[in-house]
Amino acid sequence: MTGLRVNGRHLLAGGALVAALAGVSTVGVAAATGGFTTGTGPAAYVAPGGACNVPQSLPGPVVGVTVTDMGRWMGSGTGMMGGTMRIVLDRSTVPAGKVSLRVVNAGSIVHELVVLPLPAGQQVGERRIASDGKVDEAGSAGEASRSCGAGAGDGIDPGTASWVTLTLPAGTYELVCNLPGHYAAGMYAELTVA
Ligand SMILES: [Cu+2]
Predict the structure, then answer these.
(1) SS3 of 11-35
(2) Which helix (H) or strand (E) holds 3?
(3) Are 188 and 122 in contact (CB under 8 A)?
(4) Interval between CA 23 and ligand 1 midpoint (Å)
(5) 178 CA distance to ligand 1 centroid (A)?
(6) Phi and psi torsions of 31, nearest 5°
(7) Which of 75, 131, 66, 133 has the alpha carbon at shortest distance from 103?
(8) 26-67, pLDDT tens digit by residue?
(9) Which residues of the chain have pLDDT under 50?
(10) Residue 66 CA, ligand 1 centroid: distance in Å
(11) Distance, CA 3 to ligand 1 centroid (Å)?
(12) E strands along 22-112, which residues?
């Protein structure tokens, strides 16, 4: 890991991306980060920081988020949009106030994480999906969508991480990936702020 960090985040991100695209060495990347978990196959791969130097200490309680997709393992004929994509949280409740989200992209394509208040009486996954395959982000509390960086960006590359610190009032939130088609494919998760 020391050697990887010396090489810098840009080289790391590129290397992880090349590895993902080539379909090889992904396990090697995971093993190098110490985040490889055994037992249930590639989907179980969770790298704590991806191939990024995530700040060791983020403000407030930290919610570990893993975004995944099965595109790499389901074959090209399955169709990525119809495949399984998920947002998995390591905790479902945090106290109100300052909270940090650390988002690792363990999938094979670009993802993002947007925090949306969940309207009363609505369940996660029930948002209306527009013709562009996205949901309305009005009222967003913030997002983590920058490869190896904090806050908003142009997406989290596979094998990398993004993070963000928000001050959230009590309530129920829906964390979504709003890349076209991803919400419909299952990229939503509920977070309760108590
Ligand atoms: Cu996504």
Answers:
(1) HHHHHHHHHHHHCCCHHHHHHHHCC
(2) helix 2-7
(3) no
(4) 19
(5) 6
(6) -65, -35
(7) 66
(8) 333 333 333 433 334 344 344 566 788 888 899 999 999 999
(9) 1-46, 72-82
(10) 11
(11) 30
(12) 62-69, 85-89, 93-94, 97-105
pLDDT for 70 equals: 82
What pTM, to 2 d.p., does this model score? 0.72
User: Ligand 1 centre from 105 Cα, in Å?
Assistant: 9
Residue with tokens 């890991």: 1
Q: How many whole angstroms from 70 Cα to the centroid of ligand 1?
A: 11
Locus of tokens 């791969």: 45
| Cα(125) to centroid(ligand 1), Å | 14
Distance CA 117, CA 124 (A): 10
Q: How far apart are CA 144 and CA 88, in angstroms?
A: 15
- Domain range list for the chain: 55-193
pLDDT at 71: 57
The CATH homologous superfamily to which domain 55-193 belongs is Cupredoxins -  blue copper proteins (2.60.40.420)
